Amino acid sequence: MKKHNFSAGPAVLPAPVLKEASKAALNYHGIGLSLLELSHRGPEFTAIIEEANALMKEIIGLPDDYHVLWLTGGASTQFFMAPFNLLNEDETAAYVNTGVWADKAIKEAKAFGNVSVIASSKEQNYTFIPKGYKIPKDAKYLHLTSNNTIYGTQQHRFPKSPVPIVCDMSSDFLSRPFDPTPFGLIYAGAQKNLGPAGTTVVIVREDMLGTVKRHLPSMLDYRTFIKENSLYNTPPVFPIYVSMLTLRWIKKNGGLKGMQRKNKTKAAILYNEIDRNPLFKGTVATEDRSLMNICFVMEEKYAALEKEFLKETEANGMVGLKGHRSVGGFRASAYNALPKKSVEALVALMQDFAKRKG
Ligand SMILES: *Cc1c(COP(=O)(O)O)cnc(C)c1O
Q: How far apart are the C-alpha atoms of 80 and 77, rounded to whole Å?
C-alpha cells in the first residue's frame, strides 16, 4: 500500500503522474524505447518541453515577455546565478531574510554586489514574516522567499514593490494563483511541488537581462537557455518530462485555483487539530502559517512524548513527519499532490494519541 508521504522534498507526486512516468521509463508511447534512452533533440522530447513551456505559461498566466527555463543545480544554484545575471558590483539588491534558504541567498549575492537586508525575522528563529518594511526605490531588485520550508511560514500577500521582485518559490510553486507581473524572476527546484529532483524552473522577464557588465559563461547566462529553449546542453530529460505530466495534472484539476482550494482545505483540517488538541501547538505566527509545510510541536508538558508519537506515525504508514532540527517537533508537508486522506489519517492519529496519553 502507498504510504502517506509528508516529506518536505523530494516529495509526494500525483499517483497518475507516477503511473504514466513509470510506463514511459519502460516503453515511451509504445515506440520500443525508454524515454530515458531518447535523444533530447528528437521529436519526442521536443514535443515534451514545448508542452511543458506552454502549460506553464497557461497555468500561471504569464505575459509574452516571460521565459520559462529548465535548468539544473537546484534552487541553491539560483542563489548565485540570479545576482550574477542581474546585479552589478556597484548596485544594491534588497533582501528579506525569512529563513535559512533566504539567508543562503543573501550570503551568495554578497559576492556580486551590495546586499541590503531590509527586514529579517532571524533573531526570532524565523517564526513570522516581516511586514511593513520600506523597499528602496533604487534597489536593482527585491529578493523574497515565498514559502519557508523549514519554519512553515508563507508570504500570503506580496508587498507592493517599486522594483522587480526576484522570488524563491521552491516550496509553494504552483500551489495558488498569483499575479506574475511584479516578478522579474522566479525560481523553484522541482522536487517540492512539481516533479523529481534534477531540474529547477526559472521564469524570467526579458527586461531583467543584459544589464550586467561582467562576463557570463554560457552555462551561467540565462540568455543562453532562452536562445536555445533550455536545450543548449543535455537537459534533465526525465525530470522535465515528469514535471510536464504534473503540469497536465494541475490543469486537469482546476489549475492554480483548484490547487489552492485543495491546499486550503487540507491545511485547515490539520491546523484546526493542532489548535484544538491539548497535546500539540503551532510554532509560528498564525497569520503567516504555511499551507505547504505545517510545523507543530508538543506542549511542554507532553514534550517527552514526541518520539513516541513519531514512532506511531511511522507504524501507521506515515513518513517524513520529523521536524527540521532547527524547529524540532513535527513538519507535515502538504504539497499539491498530498491527498486529503493523508491529512485525515494524521489528524485521526493525533486525536487517538491524545485520548490515550492526554
Ligand atoms: C529546498 C529549498 C531550496 C534548496 O533547493 P535545492 O534544489 O536543493 O538547491 C531553496 N529554497 C527553498 C525555499 C527550498 O524549499
A: 6
Whether the per-residue pLDDT at 87 is higher than 90: the answer is yes
Q: Which atom of ligand 1 is nearest to the CA of 79?
A: 10
CA 183 – CA 175 distance, rounded (Å): 17
Shared fold status for 15-252 and 255-357: no
Pocket test for ligand 1, best of 154, 170, 292 (most atoms within 8 A of CB): 170
Q: Which of 70, 103, 140, 192 is catalytic?
A: 192
- Burial of 356 per CB tally in 10 Å (0-12, 13-18, 19+): exposed
Q: Would you say residue 12 has pLDDT above 90?
A: yes
pLDDT attached to residue 118: 98
The CA dihedral of 216, 221, 223, 228, to the nearest 10 degrees, is 120
CATH, range 255-357: 3.90.1150.10
Of 329, 285, 337, residue with least CA distance to 310? 329
Tell me how far the alpha carbon of residue 35 is from its chain's centroid. 26
- Using a cut of 0.85, tell me whether the model's pTM lies above it: yes
12-18 mean pLDDT = 98
Domain boundaries of the chain, sorted by first residue: 15-252, 255-357
As given in the structure block, the three cell numbers for residue 153 are: 511560514
Give CA–CA dist 164/297, Å, rounded.
37
In the residue annotation, 192 being an active-site residue is answered as yes
Rounded distance between C-alpha atoms, residue 228 and residue 220, angstroms: 13
Cα Rg of the chain, angstroms: 21
What is the per-residue pLDDT across 149-174, written as a single tens digit (0 to 9) for each? 999 999 999 999 999 999 999 999 99
Average pLDDT value over all residues in the chain = 98
DSSP codes of every residue in 280-299: EEE-S-GGGB-SSEEEEEE-
Cis peptide before 16 (omega within 30 of 0): no
Q: Please tell us whether the domain made up of 15-252 is placed in CATH 3.40.640.10.
A: yes
Q: Which atom of ligand 1 is nearest to the CA of 74?
A: 7
pLDDT of res. 1: 82
Band (pLDDT 50/70/90 cuts) for residue 358 is: confident
Residues touching ligand 1 (Cβ under 6 Å) are 9, 74-76, 101, 145, 149, 168, 170-171, 189, 192
